[in-house]
Design goal:
This protein has 24 helices and 22 strands. By secondary structure, it is an alpha/beta fold. Strands 11, 12, 13, 14, 15, 16 and 17 form a 7-stranded mixed β-sheet that branches. It has a 5-stranded parallel β-sheet with strand order 2-1-3-4-5, sandwiched between helices. Strands 7-6-10-9-8 form a 5-stranded antiparallel β-sheet, with helices on both faces.
């Protein structure tokens, strides 16, 4: 990293710009920071000055961050860019990374530590990519040089007369061996340049071979030239016979391939660099998944806890909305991970026996609630003559069908969606099955059918705004079909509907051997936990609180260790029956701690351990089990699944356990309107900064809300969206939770129903909250 970094901040929100600048100054990084407040100013700065790093906000008055980012990259500017997003903008952050951003950071993490880490990550990644590009460019130049050299190559030649041992060597031969061509040359002279005994033995063996077989032989060996240069030589030799058919002369050519060998070594090095770049990308996606799954575990978990309390109808709707939004985000995360696996050629397929009908029934049962909610008929028809017992990957088949049927339901407002399964061909060993998903939905224009399978693409921008989604579902579906040897086709008529079809070949399985996808977990009551001592090893406070709430529902207290070192101390001093283990932690991660327990803790080394991790990959599960854990549960987890795993793992160690009914949930507490907790942590003891932030909020917010109310009244959707987005970060900074929730509702309505009454009412409600927050802040004397 340079001694003094030159950093540009492009953000129309002065509060955010001040926050970033301050965090840089507090982080220990020495930097000269410039700030501009529009994309046009940013372009002028970038063209006139050279920056080491750029912070770029997503929403600005004259453009959006993604378009501006693409414009910068298309102009050939390679400066590392950190994309600044608001809370909840993970999808936009992912698009930014794929559009060329070096890193992204939510506005809620613009702390000195967060900014410092992001700057280092961005610059390190930029340096790595630049090194790779420079190496690839150099290799390309060398490859072009080598190509031209081959066209103009002068190949040395030599002859040996077998009757009198006379020899001839061309001028180019002497050039290659770096000796004067007046030198007395002979076979022994040639052999004297061999430095490897095996090469010399190969040369002599090939000489004998061509004498005896009259064949042409090509081989390679190394020499050390007269000047001490190690060279690699490509040799062709053949034997000429006289008129009696007896060998009388051996002809040979030599070519210096040292440059080619060096290029091969460089290409190998470049390949290694490219593979490392793929690993970096995969690690980023894995870490992104982990960082999103960790808070999502808390969001979904607390939503489930709220759901089980006494709620009125409005509260139930709110909880249901939280759950739906959370599950939608989880689908997006899983799509991105699947897409990454396919790109990295790491998607694997099982070969297990399964029931075709049960797999289809699972998909229909899973999606029935969606169909009922939209009052659409969900039908399916399986050819009665079809072979039901197959061998293949039922999970991937279910994923394909869920994507296709789910898409059909999403884009169908009335009528029906039907899945038809037919057998095209059956042999003694295989069955070729055709799957068709037919709907009466909106249809797809002919000129857009091919593009719907492209990554991050949908039939139109209007489709994305109205129905949402990442544009990855059909890309993944097509790849999953093609990787199993099939092909997906589409027939569609606008306003009438679509039919997606694909065919897959499966091995036939014996009857009665099929596995099927499990539909429901058997409910287990939690009374078996009564005399059980449980340790949770988890560094995330939100997940700690969630676990305490969950176990509190079951009338059970648990011990908590925030890292591996504390866990070792607690295990040493207590007799635990089971441990719930997070994986990614400071000090000592979950895998290291498990290995320590299994190898260093004597009689306590056999305690059952269940992994709780946000890394939702097969590789992570295998790693956990290989390191000695007994079971694995991916975050966010279902409470009943957690209870089941506790029961199963405890049963293995303690025999049968007694069960009883579930306990009632606890009441939730209500927070104040303004919560200074985050601002205080962010300010790190700087009271002046807190006062300045509050002063700016009190000064700017009334003016901003007046403008927002006017825009709301006039249905100026574009400007309203921009102003709401700008308000979002300052609201989050001051911890006005109700206002943040209101903003999220407004943004959602602006996407799905921008001219609707609900959006207008929500803006009025937001103004009421902000006015109350302003009054509350005006009365605060100490922070």
């Amino acid at each position: 990293m340079a001694l003094v970094l030159k950093i540009l901040i492009i953000d129309d929100d002065k509060i955010d710009s001040i926050t970033i600048s301050r965090s840089i100054s507090k982080s220990g990084i020495i930097a000269e920071v410039d700030s501009v407040f529009s994309a046009d100013e940013g372009i002028e700065k970038i063209k006139s000055l050279k920056y080491d790093l750029i912070f770029l906000d997503y929403m600005m008055p004259d453009t959006d961050g993604i378009s501006f980012l693409k414009k910068i990259r298309e102009s050939g500017i390679e400066t590392p860019i950190i994309f600044v997003t608001s809370q909840g903008d993970e999808k936009i952050a992912s698009q930014a990374i794929l559009s060329g951003a070096s890193d992204y950071i939510p506005k809620t993490l613009l702390t000195p530590d967060g900014v410092s880490q992001s700057i280092r990550n961005a610059i390190n990644l930029h340096d790595s990519i630049k090194l790779r590009k420079d190496t690839e460019f150099a290799l390309k130049v060398n490859a072009n040089r080598l190509l031209e050299a081959q066209k103009l190559a002068k190949i040395g030649s030599w002859e040996i007369n077998l009757s009198n041992n006379e020899s001839y060597f061309s001028d180019e031969f002497f050039t290659i061996f770096e000796v004067e061509n007046q030198a007395i040359a002979s076979v022994d002279f040639f052999k004297s340049f061999f430095t490897d005994a095996e090469d010399l033995a190969l040369y002599e063996s090939n000489l004998d071979h061509v004498k005896n077989t009259n064949a042409e032989v090509q081989f390679q060996h190394s020499i050390t030239s007269k000047k001490g240069t190690l060279k690699y030589i490509n040799v062709f030799i053949k034997c000429l016979n006289d008129e009696n058919g007896k060998p009388y002369k051996i002809l040979g050519t030599i070519q210096d391939i040292s440059e080619q060998k060096r290029t091969e070594a460089e290409l190998t090095k470049a390949k290694d660099l490219a593979e490392k770049a793929v690993v970096i990308k995969e690690q980023f996606l894995t870490n992104m998944s982990h960082e999103i799954r960790t808070p999502m575990n808390g969001i979904i978990g607390f939503a489930r806890i709220l759901e089980s309390t006494n709620l009125d109808n409005d509260q139930k709707q709110s909880v249901e909305a939280i759950k739906k939004a959370s599950h939608n985000l989880m689908f997006i995360i899983n799509d991105i991970l699947d897409f990454s696996k396919i790109e990295a050629d790491k998607m694997t397929f099982e070969a297990v026996n399964f029931s075709l009908s049960k797999t289809v029934n699972y998909v229909i049962e899973l999606l029935c609630p969606n169909a009922k909610e939209k009052k659409i008929k969900l039908l399916y028809d399986i050819d009665p003559n079809i072979n039901d017992n197959l061998n293949g990957d039922p999970t991937k088949l279910a994923q394909i069908l869920v994507n296709l049927v789910g898409n059909a339901l999403k884009f169908t407002e009335k009528g029906y969606v039907e899945m038809v399964v037919t057998e095209l061909l059956e042999t003694e060993s295989d069955s070729l099955i055709k799957f068709s998903v037919i709907d009466t939905g909106i249809g797809i224009p002919k000129d857009r059918i091919d593009s719907i399978f492209e990554s991050f693409n949908q039939a139109s921008n209007e489709t994305t705004r109205k129905y949402g989604g990442t544009g990855l579902g059909l890309t993944i579906t097509r790849k999953l079909v093609e990787l199993q040897g099939g092909k997906i086709t589409v027939e569609s008529v606008v306003s009438k509907g679509s039919e997606f079809s694909f065919s897959l070949k499966y091995k036939n399985a014996q009857k009665g051997t099929a596995n099927h996808i499990k539909l429901k977990n058997t409910a287990i009551a939690p009374d078996f936990l009564k005399d059980i001592k449980i340790l949770l090893v988890e560094d995330n406070e939100l997940n700690q609180l969630l676990a305490m709430k969950v176990f509190g529902k079951w009338d059970k207290e648990i011990d908590i260790a925030a890292n591996g070192k504390i866990a070792i101390e607690k295990i040493t001093n207590n007799d635990y029956d089971i441990i719930l283990m997070d994986i990614q932690m400071p000090e000592m991660d979950g895998n290291e701690l498990t290995r320590f327990i299994r190898t260093k803790m004597g009689e306590k080394s056999t305690i059952p351990i269940i992994a709780l991790t946000a890394h939702a990959t097969v590789e992570e599960e295998k790693r956990c089990l290989q390191n000695g854990m007994n079971d694995y549960l991916s975050k966010p987890y279902d409470f009943n699944v957690l209870l089941e795993k506790l029961y199963l793992n405890l049963t293995k160690n303690k025999g049968n356990l007694k069960l009883s009914p579930e306990l009632a949930t606890k009441e939730m507490t209500i927070e104040k309107l303004v919560n200074f907790k985050y601002l205080k942590e962010f300010a790190d003891g700087d009271d002046t900064f807190i006062k300045n932030m509050v002063a700016v909020f009190l000064e700017k917010t009334p003016e901003t809300m007046a403008l927002i109310l006017e825009l709301n009244k006039n249905d100026d959707i574009k400007t309203l969206k921009e102003e709401i987005h700008k308000l979002k970060s300052s609201i989050s900074l001051l911890g006005v939770i109700k206002a943040s929730e209101s903003i999220n509702s407004i943004e959602k309505e602006l996407e799905i129903n921008p001219l609707g009454l609900k959006r207008k009412e929500e803006v009025v409600y937001l103004n009421e909250i902000c006015q109350l927050a302003i009054k509350e802040l005006e009365l605060v004397e100490e922070y």
